[in-house]
Amino acid sequence: MLDSTLLDAVKASLKHSFESAKQEESPYRHWRLRELFPLGTARSISKLPFSPPVIDDTGGRRETHNESRRFFDQDAINKFPTCSAIAHALQSPELIRIIEQRCELDLTGTNLRIEYALDTEGFWLEPHTDLGVKKFTMLAYMAEDPEHEGWGTDIYLTKESPAQRVPATFNTAMIFVPSTNTWHGFEPRKINGIRRTLIINYVTQEWRNRYELAFPNEPITSA
């Protein structure tokens, strides 16, 4: 279900957001993006018919409850215009070119993966780097709950040393290229509402759960 007008608007918004991103060097190189999607698109994400999973303790790992995770997969892309526009925009050669230039990396041969994380009270995430099969990470904050600003990603100087907390301002994002020092997580804290995050990665062909991918049979080609 692809709305070409919506797709063009999402592409334009993402393009501007990437091109105007603020580069940070502490505690490692990352970028902060604002006004990621058109406002209507950003707000439509919370209206998607996905409910937060009923879980107990995650053990600090999302994969503890793999069966309850949500993705902009082929089913969601075919059903929901918002999912379709975002996925097709991030798959497009225009956006790939901008991401590669901004982050100085080559995404050729990777696949797009978009997880829609709906975190509630009790959620936490141990520090990790994403190094390995993830070649690019974007954490996009989509919650508008009263306390959502405090639900951002914790980034670390070392695995044991928290450095700062990224504000989870609505419709903003943090991006980075995974390496040995890109420690990030979510320290335990109160979540009065639903923490809504799009976790966007370009992953290598070694990614095992192909059903999670937006376009499992369409790897990124050279931009």
Question: What does it look like?
Answer:
With about 220 residues, the protein is an alpha+beta fold. The chain has a single domain (about 5-210), classed as Sandwich (Jelly Rolls), CATH 2.60.120.620. It is about 25% helix and about 25% strand. The protein has helices spanning about 5-20, 40-45, 75-80, 80-90, 95-105; strands at about 20-25, 30-35, 110-120, 125-130, 135-140, 155-160, 160-165, 170-175, 185, 195-205. This is 2OG-Fe(II) oxygenase. It comes from Halothiobacillus neapolitanus (strain ATCC 23641 / DSM 15147 / CIP 104769 / NCIMB 8539 / c2).
CATH architecture level-2 label: Sandwich
Distance between the termini: 24 Å
CATH fold title: Jelly Rolls
Largest sheet: 6 strands, antiparallel
Please give the count of helices. 5
SSE order, as H and E? HEEHHHHEEEEEEEE
The residue-averaged pLDDT reads 93
Helix percentage range:
10-25%
Taking all Cα atoms into account, the compactness measure Rg is 16 Å
Structural class: alpha+beta
Layout of helices and strands, plus pairs?
Elements: H1 4-19, E1 22-24, E2 30-33, H2 39-45, H3 74-79, H4 81-91, H5 93-103, E3 111-119, E4 125-128, E5 134-141, E6 154-158, E7 161-165, E8 172-176, E9 184-186, E10 195-203
Antiparallel strand pairs: 1-2, 2-8, 3-10, 4-9, 5-8, 5-10, 6-7, 6-9
Helix pairs in contact: 1-4, 1-5
In short:
The chain has 5 helices and 10 strands. With 223 residues, it is α+β, with helices and mostly antiparallel strands.
